[in-house]
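Subject: sequence -> structure tokens, single chain

Hey, anyone have a minute? Need the predicted structure for the following. Not urgent.
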Amino acid sequence: MTDIRPTTIVFLLFPGITQLDFTAPAQALSRMPGATLVGAAANLDPIVTDSGFSILPTHDFASAPQADILCVPGGHGVVDALGDQATIAFIARQAAGAAWVTCVCTGAFLLGRAGLLAGKRATTHWGYTHLLPRVGAEPVKARVVEHGNIVTCGGVTSGLDFALTLIARLKGEAVAQAIQLAIEYDPAPPFAGGHPDRTPAAITADLKTRVYDAAAAKMEEALTPP
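Reply:
Had a minute. Here:
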């Protein structure tokens, strides 16, 4: 029989979140038997995402239930969230009672700021992996990295991989495979290369110059103690 014990999954929401960091794992995890999803933010105002539309939180920090699974998405808004003490305190408080502490993309730095990645193997978006030692983590080149009850994953679409990996841990591979089938997660990208290891060097260099060199510099500044 399928394990239908209730599981509360709390996603941290903050302005400037990358919506797919949240919505991709949320789509898979919401189909896990017994799952209840919570979107927790500092208040109940709409959260503006990086895609131009907004998401409505279900709870504020004070009213959010204790997570069985805590998930911290990433996005360019992480830079500001790193300096918000209420956000960091919420992560630390929820993590203390959670069975699993997870993140997508640059959400890793919010876990790190909360003191959760010290001495842990971890990954994040390829444009920021060199900054993981700033929060005490050991960078690992992998799409999903597990270290104890901490699960980190790479950029954006990696959130689906992390979610299915965790579902298999909790409910068994057959449940995870059924959910993967239900959402038709059968990647066949039109181009070979969603990572610098498999993308033409000129395209990687151009993207780094246009976006990620400056973005990583802002993240590094936010991670540097005053």
